[in-house]
Amino acid sequence: MVLRAKTKLLFQGKPLTEQQRTNSERNLSEIDAHQTILQSLPRRLVFELTNACNLNCKMCGRNATDFKLTMFDMHWFCWFEPLLDTVEEVTLMGWGEPTLHPHFLEMLQIIDRHAARKYFCTNGMRLDKIRDAIFDTHVDVFAVSVDGATPETNNRIRRGSDLETIVQNLKKIEQIKKERGLSYPWINFVFTAMKSNLQELPDLVRLAHEIGIEEVKVVYLTAFQEALADEVLWNCTDQVRSVFQEAIALGDSLGIQLKLPYLQGEDIAGDQEHKDCFTPWRDFFLGSDGFIRPCMSTPVQFERFDPCKTFEAMWNSLPYQNYRRWVNDPEKMDAPCRRCYQSSFCNWNKKRTFLQMEQAFAPQWKKNA
Predict the structure, then answer these.
(1) Where on the phi/psi map is residue 212: left (φ > 0), alpha (ψ -120 to 50), or beta?
(2) What is the DSSP letter of 231?
(3) Whole-structure pTM over 0.85, yes or no?
(4) What residues pair up with 186 in beta bridges, in sequence order?
(5) Do residues 317 and 303 touch, judged by C-beta distance below 8 A?
(6) pLDDT tens per residue, range 301-354
(7) Nearest to 135 by CA among 91, 184, 88, 90
(8) Cys-Cys crosslink for 348: which of 91, 238, 267, 333, Cβ 3.0 to 4.6 Å?
(9) Which tens digits make up the pLDDT trace of 93-144?
(10) Looking at residue 195, what is its pLDDT?
C-alpha cells in the first residue's frame, strides 16, 4: 500500500470517543468552510519538547542556524491537560530529540489518563530507556528516523546514531508487543532520501519487515546549506522513480506500507506554491521556546504562550485568523509559505522546495522567559 501527502484525517490507531468525534467533525467542517474563527478545538496538539539533540545529522537544519537551547516548560504541558479528552492526538516532536526532555515519561503518563492518542518521533538512540514506558502508557504510534539500511550509511549521515542498536531495540519492542498480543505501538521508519542513500530504500523495506514494523515513510532531503546542495534529488526523477517502484513492489510482497512523496513534475500541487494546507485549523503548535507557531517548518512566531489567557483566545488570535485567511491564498500567503518545505504540504515540482539555502527557515530561538 502506498500513501502520499497527508489527508485531513490523522492516524486512526483507536476509536474516537463521542467527545472527540464531535469536535473532529466540527473541525473538518470548519476547514471546508474556510472559517477563520473556530468553534472547534484543534484535532492535534504539537509540542516541541526541546531543540536539543544527542545526534549531529549532516543534513539537519540545526547546523545551518544559530539558536539557544530551549526546553518545554512542564507547567505549560499541565496547563493543556483539560483539552486531552477532546483533541485526537498529542504529538511530541520538533527540532530536537523529544526523549531528552527530563519529564518525557511523565508527559506520556499524563496523556494516558485521557482519550488523546500519543505520538512522538525519535532518532531511536534512547529506545532502551523508554521501552517500558511505551507499553505502560499505551503509546499509540511513534516514528524512528533512520537514513540508511546499513550501519555504514545510516551512521555516516546520522552522526552519533547506531543502526544496529536501533534495530535491536525495535526487535525487543516488537517481541514484547507480540508476546502480549498488542496492536500498539504502530511504528514506522522515516527516511530522508538523498543521492547518497536512495539506493538503500528497498533494503530498508526489507529491514522493516525483518523487525516487524509496519511502515516506511520517505521524505526528500531539503538542503539548508550549500554543502548539501549536491545531495538533493532535484532533476533525478528517473532514478527516484526506479527505486520507488522497486520499494513499492517489495512493500506489496512483504506487507509493508510505504508513504512516499510525489515525484518531481507529478505533485498534485501543480504550479501552486504548495498543496492546500490545513495545519492552522487542525494543529496547535507550541515551540520549546514558548512561542506559538503555525507549524515547525516556518520561522513565523504568532505570540508567546500566555497561561493567563484562555486557550480559545490563543487559538483564535488575530495572527491565527490571518493565517487561516492567507495560508492558501497565492496573493497573500507569507514568504515562508511560498517556499514551504513541510513534507506533507510542499510542492515537489518546485526547485526551491529542495534548496532552502540562505533562507530564514527556523525561528529566532530565544531562551524561555
Answers:
(1) left
(2) G
(3) yes
(4) 141
(5) yes
(6) 999 999 999 999 999 999 999 999 999 999 999 999 999 999 899 999 999 999
(7) 184
(8) 267
(9) 998 999 999 999 999 999 999 999 999 999 999 999 999 999 999 999 999 9
(10) 97
Written as one letter, the residue type at 267 is: D
The pLDDT of residue 4 is above 90: no
pLDDT above 70: residue 367: no
How distant, in Å, are the alpha carbons of 17, 176, 206, 245 from that of 183?
18, 11, 21, 29
How many whole angstroms separate alpha carbon 115 and alpha carbon 215? Answer: 24
pLDDT at 100: 97
Q: How far apart are CA 264 and CA 279, in angstroms?
A: 23
251 Cβ contact list (under 8 Å, min separation 6): 1, 2, 205, 216, 257, 258
Q: Report residue 259 as a C-alpha cell.
A: 508513504
Question: What pLDDT, on the 0 to 100 scale, is given for residue 149?
Answer: 97
Task: Give, as one character, the DSSP assignment of residue 290.
Answer: S
**Of 95, 171, 69, which Cα lies nearest the Cα of 128?**
171
CB 71 within 8 A of CB 123: no
pLDDT tier for residue 369 given thresholds of 50, 70 and 90:
very low
Task: Show Cβ contacts of residue 182 under 8 Å, excluding neighbours closer than 6 positions.
Answer: 135, 176
Using the predicted structure, report yes or no on whether residue 11 has a pLDDT greater than 90: no
Tell me which amino acid residue 107 is. Answer: M
Burial (CB < 10 A; 0-12, 13-18, 19+), residue 351, is exposed
Strand order in the sheet with 303-304: 2-3, 257-259, 215-220, 186-193, 141-145, 117-122, 89-92, 44-47, 283-286, 291-293, 303-304
- Condensed to tens digits (0 to 9), the pLDDT of residues 80-97 reads 999 999 999 999 999 899
Q: Give me 118's grid cell.
A: 500519543
| DSSP β-bridge partners for residue 122 | 144
